[in-house]
Write a structure and sequence with these properties.
The protein contains three helices and five strands. The chain is an alpha/beta fold.
């Protein structure tokens, strides 16, 4: 009787190991026949880049609440304003749009939406800024528009 129990136990272990071996062979064969496809996405693919332009709005002329007013108007027009506040100085005469990401086209879109001349679009790349452009509102703010 003991021999039957030990034979049954040994046969069960051998059956389990055989099943495990078959599963491993199947996995290896499927890996050889169907190799993994590497990620072929091109990081420069513009279709993957968000169409929302992220901006920062800074008050450069000292009029109280100006950055908040423009933040609200820009958000109403589809821009993602990630930060607003005061510029380092309040003596900015003409509004500036500063390209921060290296995508000058986005900065020009912001300038066009505000009615800012292309001569007031400058490039000052900052890898630590996670936004497309900085808008520094100048004393000419009454002449600005939004589409």
């Amino acid at each position: 009787m003991k021999k039957n129990n030990s034979d049954l136990f040994l046969n069960s272990i051998l059956g389990f190991l055989g099943l495990l071996l078959i599963l491993l062979l199947f996995a290896v064969l499927t890996r050889v026949v169907f190799p993994r496809i590497e990620n072929t996405r091109d990081d420069s693919d513009e279709s993957m880049i968000s169409s929302i332009i992220q901006v920062e709005v800074l008050n450069g002329c000292g009029v109280p609440g100006l950055a908040t007013t423009f933040t609200n108007k820009l958000r109403e027009n589809g821009f993602d304003v990630v930060e607003s506040g005061n510029a380092d100085t309040f003596d900015i005469k003409e509004t500036l749009v500063v390209d921060r990401s290296g995508n000058l086209d986005n900065a020009k879109k912001v300038a066009k939406a505000l009615g800012v001349s292309d001569k007031n679009v400058i490039q000052e790349l900052a890898s630590t800024y996670f936004l497309d452009a900085t808008i520094i509102i100048g004393s000419d703010y009454k002449q600005l528009k939004l589409n």
